[in-house]
Amino acid sequence: LAVWLAPLRLGSSPPALVGWYNEQCARPPGTGQRVDAPDAALAFVLYSVPGFLDVVAEHYVRARPEGDAAAAATAEILGWLCDYLPPELEPTVSLVES
To answer: Is this prediction's pTM over 0.85?
Structure first.
């Protein structure tokens, strides 16, 4: 995953079970955003690294999205990721903004 994400200037956390992640978000109460997925699902947290703004700018020049260019670029990248992963993994995206 890290190799696939690197050219897009994104990083990834180690995998975690959604149930565990959601429990951690509840401590202390109201401090985290839950992921809407089954507790047994495997999750990764993706985050931007230096250079991501260049990816957003390239996306903007190419796609000319209306509204939030960073959100549009992120949505496009997550779509590519879902297409890249084997379908038997049933990839889904749960976007949690900080």
So the answer is: no
